[in-house]
Structures are given as C-alpha cells and as structure tokens.
Amino acid sequence: MGLAAVAVSLACTLLAQPAAAQSDGWRHTLELYLMAPSLSGTVGMGQLETDIDLPSSSVFENLEFAALADYRGESDSWAVLADIVVMNLGASGTGSVGRGAADVDVDELIVELAGAWRISSTFEVLAGARYTDLTSRVELTTPGFEQDAEVSEGWIDPIVGAQAFLPLATALQLQLRGDVGGFGVGCDLTWHATVRVNWQVSDAVRLGLGYRVLDQDYETGSGSDVFRWDVVTQGPLVAAGITF
Q1: For residues 153 and 137, is the Cβ–Cβ distance under 8 A?
Q2: What range does the domain containing 60 cover?
Q3: What is the pLDDT at residue 20?
Q4: pLDDT value of residue 10
Q5: What does the DSSP 8-state code read for residue 47?
Q6: What integer pLDDT is reported at residue 94 of this predicted model?
Q7: How do residues 133-161 score in pLDDT, each as one tens digit?
Q8: What CATH number is associated with residue 134?
Q9: Kind of pairing, strands 27-35 and 227-243?
Q10: Among 46, 146, 147, 242, which is least packed, fewest CB within 10 Å?
Q11: Which residues of the chain have pLDDT under 70?
Q12: What distances in angstroms separate CA 96 from CA 48, 149, 226, one per listed residue?
C-alpha cells in the first residue's frame, strides 16, 4: 500500500472520532506519520569503518520495523512538542579501504521534547532536547577476510531552533522548521530541517506531506573503543493526525 493510501485510510479512521472542546485554552494535535528515509554517511566501530548509502527507493526492502508519531500542544503564547521515531534499517556500503562489502544493521530510537515561545500566530522559537539510542551492527567482507562488530550507544543533544506556519489558503498551511544542536554535549553537531504542507481537512482531522532531514555527527571513545555515527537521514513523509 502506498504512503498516500495509508494516510487516507488513517484519516478516515480519525474522522470517526469527535473533537473534544478544551476549557483550558490549549489545542492539541496527535499524529502518526510514515517516512521513506535514506541514510548516507560514515559508521565507525573501533578499527572498522564503513561508508553507507541506503537510498529511499530501496528502504522498504531494508525496513524491518517502524513506528513514528508526534504531538503538539499549544496556547496563544506557548507550545509543547514531542516526537518519537523507532526504526530498524539495514544498509550496504564499502569498507574504509575502498574494497570489499559492508552490511550495516541499525536499530534506532529518537525521542524529542521541546518547548516553544509563540512570538506570533505564524512564528515561534523553540528549545529542547533530542535523545538518540542506536544499536549498530557492521559486517565487513573483503577477499580472504571477514570482520564484524556491534555497539550500542545513547546520547542527548540540546537543540534550539525556530518554526514558521505560513497560510497558503483557507485550509492549507506551509510549515517550516529548523534546529541545530549537540554543541559537544552529545553530537559534535546536529541539525534538522522539515518542510511540510498541512491540510486541515476538518476541525478534527489534519493531513500533512513533506520532507525531513536529520544530520548527526557523533563520536565517542578512542582506539579500539571508538564509535562514530556521522550520518544524514532524510526522506519524504506523510502524516495524518487528530486535533482536539
């Protein structure tokens, strides 16, 4: 089933749920979304290092599991944001000496929590933290040689950024978001950008279509204990949510 078909099916389910009036002045949106990510960059474990390149065109051949959801609660002046991504992906690449084949399997959990100050109805600044937990397995095969390694790492990146919501039509909205973080606390540097078009189908239902990029440059340890994750994850996404 295509991404659009899944979103429409989910939206029909959400339409059956009535929106609840809030007496506290806050508006809430819960979303489920799908993303077709590509991964590119470098993964290193001790003396084993490989360049990976997993295009989104082949992601479903390598995707074993995925669960993605986000939440936004907002008042006139403030907003609370949360996002969770759980994915298991496989990728292939080349060894650090440019010869041989490398297979990379990644179990990834990313949880983000942030608060935003709504400067106006269309613009806000935000600050928060993004937690990443990775279990990476690399198997490198060259002529007459085979080596594999596995490592689990978790870290927290402080993030700061901004977000804009620009009306395109009565029910259409352009959403732009960018943030940067890490600053040596977790990643040396990480940045994220999202561009989306949101369609408010009804008071209760919203659909979204967009593109997301997450760049993470993380390294810890030294010598045989070094772990490096310098990877860009990006791809189109489709979302369906309920507003109440």
Answers
A1: no
A2: 3-243
A3: 40
A4: 43
A5: T
A6: 59
A7: 998 777 777 666 677 778 889 999 999 99
A8: 2.40.128.90
A9: antiparallel
A10: 146
A11: 1-24, 56-64, 90-102, 142-145
A12: 7, 14, 15
Residue 108 · residue 132 · CB < 8 Å = yes
Contact 137, 148 (CB under 8 A): yes
CA distances for 186 relative to 12, 157, 158, angstroms = 41, 5, 8
Start-to-end CA distance of the chain, whole Å, equals 28
Question: Can you tell me whether residue 16 is helix, strand or coil?
Answer: coil
Handedness of CA 113, 118, 121, 122 (dihedral sign): negative
What is the residue-wise DSSP string for 54-99?
E-GGGHHHHEEEEEEEEEEEE-SSEEEEEEEEEEEEEEEEEETTS-
* Total domain count, the chain: 1
What is the helix (H) or strand (E) element at residue 3, kind and residue range?
helix 3-15
**What residues contact 80, with CB distance under 8 A and at least 6 apart?**
71, 72, 73, 74, 114, 115, 116
pLDDT at 117: 98
Q: Whole-angstrom Cα distance, residue 47 to residue 214? A: 26
| Structure token digits, residue 163 | 């977000």
State both tokens at 85.
């991504």
Per-residue DSSP letter, 144? T
